[in-house]
Amino acid sequence: MNNIALYELAHARTGDKGNHANISLIAYKPEDFALMVDQVTPERVAVHFGARRPSEVRRYLLPNLGAMNFVLDNVLDGGVNDSLNLDMHGKSLSFHLLTLPVQRP
After folding, report:
1. Which CATH number among 3.30.1360, 3.40.50, 1.10.3470, 3.30.230 corresponds to the domain 2-104?
2. Is the N or the C terminus of the chain less surrounded, counting Cβ atoms within 10 Å?
3. What is the 8-class DSSP label of residue 37?
4. CA 37 to CA 47: how far, in whole Å?
């Protein structure tokens, strides 16, 4: 097994709605999607974002697209308009998820 960063297998897009973040992961190759389903779980994502203290992490699978979507509740310090946190939204959150280590056989 080889430890690699998730960004070697996928790219990400992020959005926000109020105090909630939405991060989509899209596999570069269809054969990597199953590995992502096994290893990029809501529990692991919650731990990876532990400093942001998500109250809940939900995952939605989109197998026909080789993608998954995560909704992280209450991670944006009140939302983009209320937060004093400099750019802890959007691209910075998606890149943080892409640093998650995964094991490639």
Report:
1. 3.30.1360
2. C
3. H
4. 16
**pLDDT tens-digit readout, 33-66:** 999 999 999 999 999 999 889 999 999 999 999 9
| pLDDT band at residue 105 using 50, 70 and 90 as cut-offs | confident
pTM of this structure: 0.86
HSE, CB side, 13 Å, CA atoms: give it for residue 49: 33
Q: Distance between CA atoms of 47 and 42, rounded to whole angstroms?
A: 9
Give yes or no for a contact between 23 and 14, defined as CB atoms under 8 angstroms apart: yes
